[in-house]
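To: structure subgroup
Subject: Chain for Friday's discussion

All,

I'm putting the inputs and outputs inline so they're searchable in the archive.
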Amino acid sequence: MLPDSWQHEVSGEFTQSGTVLAMRLRVNGRIVFSDTATGPNAVNELIDKGAFKLLEATEPFVAAVALFNGGDLPRAEAAADRIIATFPPGDENIAMAHTLKGVIAEQRYEEYAQAPNQRDEHANLADAIAEYREAIRLDRKYPEAHFGLGNVWHKLGKDASAVAEYREAIRLDRKYPEAHNGLGNVWDKLGKEEAAAAEYRAAIRLDPQDALPHTNLGRVWKKQGKEDDAMAEFREAIQLAPKDADPHDSLGDVFDDQGKEDEALAEYREAIRLDPKLAAPHSGLGNIWDKQGKEGAAVAEYREAIRLDSKLAAPHSGLGTVWYNVGKEEAAVAEYREAIRLDSTFARAHYNLGVVWDKHGKENTAVAEYREAIRFDPKLAQPHNGLGNVWDNLGKGDAAAAEYREAIRLDPKYAHPHNNFGNLYNNQGNVDDAIAEYRAAIRLDPNFARPHNGLGTAWDKLGKEDAAAAEYRYAIRLDLQDAEPHNNLGNLWDKLGKEDAAAAEYRDAIRLDPTLAAPHNGLGNVFDKQGKEDDAIAEYHAAIRLDPQDALPHRNLGKVFDEQGKEDNAIAEYHAAIRLDPKDAVPHIGLGNVFDKQGKEDDAISEYHAAIRLDHKDARPHNNLGNVLDTLGKEDAAAAEYREAIRLDPKYANPHNGLGNVWDTLGKEDAAIAEYRAAIRLDPQNANPHTNLGRVWKKQGKEDAAIAEYDAAIRLDPKLAPLHYNIGPKLIYRAPP
């Protein structure tokens, strides 16, 4: 890069007057330096100044480079301008000076990120392009100008042009390591990691003492999951350049990925100590603090990174994640969009934005963002996991499974797709495979709360209530802010008849996430069981307000209205539930019950048949259909439905009671007695089979047995007081006044 040496006549002298020392230098008889100094360091001070002036006079380009390396951009640019203005046409120094001006313009572009000024920073890149092109016009064989132009094209995202310039620089100078490193950067950006690694290795071979290609090669190995190789390169870079901050920052990223947060913190802090103006390690620190739940510290680090480099996308994405986690979703979206504006290829920001849209039910927008993330980083597992969640929510189980498998293939250590796979299997009724996936997620991340919650739901389905409760509690202990395990634990306690405990869990869930509809629905169920119908209705309405697309609270509200005798309201709610979830059999059962009460037997029968068609394993519509058929005097058809209900659910008491009624009607009293006793054995708290058994005993003249059954019925349901009159004189004394 240096010009041919010139021959010059240099002369000069020191003179002293009192305490003042003077120095004068001449080149070819022309005075180039004259200055004075005082004090014990006067000689050294004058020699330093004079030496630079001598260099400026004899090797002006070398002097300009020295000024640039010293950070004095204005003087460096002025020196380059003097070369361009004073050197004869065709002199190699002119092309070199234009190249230096291009480098200066690039440096100003970089500084704009740290201290924006009124001038458009892209104008600096335009200046750089113009200077490099002028240098190439003057000397097409000057490799440094091609290298500089390649750098600018790379900054502007014009990768093909950058590749062409780097290759031209290498063609002109086969031993140009910086050009190989630059070409490696382009291949790395384009995802051509093997090609990038080859170029970085070429740069290392040509200049084994340069730390930069080691750092870049380490980043390639990190992307490929070769953490040991990456760390070896970063450590080699640190050994070669102990004052370079970048390899410490990159080493911190590896430790962060490994979950070694203390080591990561140490490396990020060392990077900041070495280069207080480097933004990336502040962003890395923010990531650590965010993982540790230290939102304030994370925000401070992300903002510092943004202040240091307003063009860096990563801290905006990180800041968005903090805002998302604390419920500030509009602020999160703004940060994710800013990250994408700064770097449209930043896959993680697209992924994070997809997560927000998915949460708000904007499936198409979420899918678009996840696909963008995959396009820009095909090796990133998270967007495949997110895409799987969307397909799962849309009922596309096969597509969801394919995405979860791809996420696991890309990152076998990633726990979330195993958890989501577990949820998918669980919802499909494949409980054994669900348990296996939940356990895989827990093995990969023992502090991950959600698979414990999922495992709890699986145990609950298998009737292992103690194991389910233990998993829900473990999930709560791991994540005190997650409402879902509280809601599920509430469901379990409600199922076990522990209504107060259930209500407490539902309230905790509501406190943790006031936007969650499910615990309001659960609390409504508790209030309904406790006879607090108005409170139940209020909770169901709250659930509907929070999630208008959820059929369940409409279904439950229909049940309460039916119990209150508000049949039109009940019908409206059941219809709403059916509209929202046409595959749910239960609201058809409820609608059938209302129509049966209204004497609309044909409509009731139609609804029960609809329920059976939707869920052929549910015993209830068969039982209720049997009741209607019995009312219509179709005893054989009724008996068939009751038997089917018993076959589907041998522990279901009601069809035994109904079948007893059929046998009683047909005069088969012994068969009726057997069925009533079966109903009582299966549901000792149900008064109806006691009443019916008492009626049979009375018909047979067994008054003591009848009285015992009526007593049992009244004890279970005091509203059955009219039974006091069913036996005659023996119970008259018990009649109410």
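Points worth raising on Friday:
The domain at 653-736 is CATH 1.25.40.10 (Serine Threonine Protein Phosphatase 5, Tetratricopeptide repeat).
The beta strands are 10-17, 20-27, 30-37.

D.
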